[in-house]
Amino acid sequence: MAEATVNAVPSEPRARYRKKNMRLWLSASWLILVALIAILAPLLAPHNPLEQDLMLERLPPIGFSGYEAGYFLGTDSLGRDVLSRVMYGAQIALTVALIAATAACIFGSVLGLLAGYFGGWVDRVVSRLIEIWMAFPPVLFSILLVAVLGAGLTSVILAIAIIDWTRFARVIRAETMVQSRMDYVQSARIGGATRLGALVGEVVPNVLPTIIALLSLEMGVAVIVEAILSFVNLSISSDSPTWGGMIAEGRATIHFAWWVLVVPLIVLFLTVLSFSQLGEGLKDQFDPLAR
After folding, report:
1. How far apart are CA 244 and CA 88, in angstroms?
2. Are the C-beta atoms of residues 269 and 283 closer than 8 Å to each other?
3. How far apart are CA 279 and CA 212, in angstroms?
């Protein structure tokens, strides 16, 4: 009995690790698939996503009565191929996620590192700036910025980067304050490292897992914000294939063509969920304390 208990104890951490590892690989596999589809959309898409044919409006997906060969996920109210539009919509979603999240990550992480490590007036200035910025509701602020800057992909990217840098600055500041008090930082200073050298060489590598997790999570947030803006027609042109625009159109025709709403909604949900799970999985993978 005692032997069975002893053997069961080490198996629990191993089982948790396998579960986390599976979560990491599943989310990474989905995101790689979406990225490949976005890159190869001109080759993989069966139809032009902007091509309209009212004779083919609201065709059901494959497996349903009335299916038309070549339109695997059906068509919308203008006869446009849903599968092709979802593929091209992935290009817009991932472009916004990559550029906007990276810009917010760099700016916010640098400010958070400086505020958390040097403290004093640097910390006070950054903290007040974060508090002022976070006083504005993020979604409403993004809509206001896009309305001022004008609709377009560049405006959406700028709005997300301008708003969401506070997420990185706040978390990285707190993490840097903890790491900067560790013995290994003091040892580096005693060994002759400058304050900036200790920050770059000692603190940043230990904060990096948190930055990676936040970056992945922010990419999912950026995808959601772009979908919201395109849903209210404040992203790029309404004719362009965006997941939010497809959801807005599908909402109006849900009783006649449910697939126009359901298909992009499922893809959006899985993509955002995968970004979130990927961030947590990478943090567990690279953080020695978590492992």
Report:
1. 13
2. no
3. 6
Query: Where on the phi/psi map is residue 48: left (φ > 0), alpha (ψ -120 to 50), or beta?
Result: beta
Q: Is 71 left (phi over 0), alpha (psi -120 to 50) or beta?
A: beta
Structure tokens at 38: 């976005």
Provide φ and ψ at 254, rounded to 5°: -60, -30
- Provide mean pLDDT across the span 213-242: 84
Could you read off the pLDDT of 134-185 as tens digits, one per residue? 887 777 777 777 777 777 788 888 888 888 898 899 999 988 888 888 777 7
The 10s digit of each residue's pLDDT in 248-285 is: 888 888 888 899 999 999 999 999 999 988 887 777 66
Chain-centre distance of CA 280, in angstroms?
12
CATH no. of 2-286: 1.10.3720.10
Does residue 73 register a pLDDT over 60?
Answer: yes
CA separation for the pair 165, 171 (Å, rounded): 10
pTM confidence score? 0.83
Give yes or no for a contact between 227 and 268, defined as CB atoms under 8 angstroms apart.
yes
SS3 content of the chain, % helix, strand, coil (to 5): 75, 0, 25
The CA-atom distances, in angstroms, between 161 and each of 38, 66, 118, 231, 286 are 22, 45, 25, 19, 26
Enumerate the domain spans of the chain. Answer: 2-286
Question: Helices (H) and strands (E) in the chain — how many of each?
Answer: 11, 0
Give the SS3 label for residue 75: strand
pLDDT at 8: 46
**Two tokens, residue 35:** 């990225």
Residues found in the chain: 291
Residue for token digits 């990276």?
A: 102
